[in-house]
Amino acid sequence: MELQKLIDQLRLNYVDKYIIEKNFPEDECDKNDISFSEIFWGLCLLFVITFALSRDVVTSIVIALVVILVYLVSKLLKGNNKTFVLFTFARDMHPWEIIEEMQIEGYRPATLREFLGWAFKNWDRKNIITTLGQIFHDSDGELYVPILKSNNERLCLDWFYDSWKGVYFLAVKN
To answer: Which of 83, 89, 91 lies closest to 108, judged by CA?
Structure first.
């Protein structure tokens, strides 16, 4: 989904001007696309198999199309069933330590699009939540991460190298 649409649906009071498509491009984890070649070769394989079994062209085409349709629907539904969890820590931790803790538990930091999609359905607008899945590099080489702040419902960028405590980090099951 387009980044701006995800931001708009949250109806925030403020969005940092650097949180744009150019600075936060779509990640592989955000994609739920099915390639044309995947459909084409799957259809060809199914047609050959069903034709070899039935010797009827029309039946083979219908069976191959139905199987591909079921596959496409299941793949689309699977892409929307990601398991999210919020991590928080009682002590100051650096970002690399937080990411390492997530990985030990079998999670990875959410991408910005995953983060915003999750927030639309789940953010209580009371807690400060961030993700370490996509990092913005400014012109000075500084690193920033997107953060949803409950005071005035803002989507900001915070310095990546902060020691983090009392903040929630969104993660996705690997």
So the answer is: 83
